[in-house]
Amino acid sequence: MRILVTGGAGFIGSALIRHLINDTDHEVLNLDKLTYAGNLESLRQVENDPRYRFLQADIGDQAAVSEALSSFQPDAIMHLAAESHVDRSIDGPAAFIQTNIVGTYALLEATRAYWSKLDEPRHQAFRFHHISTDEVYGDLHGVDDLFTETTPYAPSSPYSASKAASDHLVRAWQRTYGLPVLLTNCSNNYGPYHFPEKLIPLVILNALDGKPLPVYGNGQQVRDWLFVEDHARALLQVVTRGQIGETYNIGGHNEQKNLDVVHAICDLLDELQPRAAGSYREQITFVSDRPGHDLRYAIDASKIARELGWTPAETFPSGLRKTVRWYLDNLDWCRRVQDGSYQRERLGAPKEQQA
How many structural domains compose the chain? Predict the structure, then answer.
């Protein structure tokens, strides 16, 4: 297939593209605006592959998207482009409304126009896969209940509210216009190439730099952690085998309290790159809790296992060990993100590259 991936220079998008190029025969067009979270260095290993192309464009630019669709002629769109950091959405929600809601609308309209003109076999085979988050469901207050595909939406932050809105738009475009859509809602991702402001890479890098390891509130918030390469495999299963109109929850079966995650990172660093004296745990600092902080997320991923045969390959201990080792081995990548040089270096790059 020819697959257009929006947001392919981001954390999950780049993992998906590496999987598509390294492990399949599909062709990929990566359409990314290259905001702060877009890093083409995450795609170095595939950038010269003849099946990979990159186009710098905004999903909100309907004319640019339409031109890309006409030129590339994709069989599927996998829509990952989004503003996704909760803290940033609290400080400045406007960008989240613009990208996640208005941008998704523009993408849907460009897609609908393109899809309507395809010949009948390609029209029937086309898929629009919208990748979303479990945060649209709000939070869970019990210790045993799980998010299912039919859990009512109750978003808590500007980020999750904007993602919930985009989910509703995608479903409406299927119901009203017949667009063949699929949706997935995933739990917290982690793994290589994760932007350093997120919890796990932040703790790793702060620990190595001797800085405080910030933990919100009492650190008892629970998240279900999904290794990003497992997520990439799941996304491919959905776009190639999922049923039109269906939603699939993707989780790692790895519920962990935030404080326990920080402890686990410290313990791995104590083993793999010990401090001169004492444990990295000594750097843990508790800070004021985030406004509206959800207490617990946990996904029931039995539907995708039952219907599409996907289950995560990594446990949290195995995935976290791989992640910590990757950061220790790739500190140059991290430093270029931290000092902003990854953005400066790309300013002179062409907006479109094709091997």
Answer: 1
